[in-house]
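Write out this protein's structure.
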Amino acid sequence: MKLVIIALFLISCSEIREVKNSNTPINVQESSSVEITITNKGETSSLVKSDLLIQNDKESFMRLNGNVQIILFENKNLSSITSCDSAFVDQEKNIIKAFGNIQVKGIEEKFLFCQTMEWNNDSNKIISDSDVLFITSKDTLYGNYFESDIDLSNWILRNPKGVINNE
């Protein structure tokens, strides 16, 4: 009988060690229908909405999944609205990374379409190093790198191809 009890105790101890040494992240926070306000010097710089937020103990950022919407402001005025499949909000680096079916609508009928994008709250720039489609009221351009202000006004497009209307 003593042998069976000792064997059970040793098996139980080994299982506890495996859980303690596990590298599997443990979700600290999981929320649905979330809305996050990000500020810069006390003013709202963005509003982020998502179906699901997940944050765990191994990562310094929040994961957002499903119907992600990123609304960017400058001087309390709406600058652009981004929709995407998922995003990471990194509070330490002060950036948002967006992924999948990204659509950015600037306030002056300018549109950006891409698969990856980063917004930096410190520099207030949108950057995409994936293939992009950029549309204005006069132009339709393709490229493989895009950088602009958050309202899509001052922009850089690398390797541009497309239609430019000079009228």
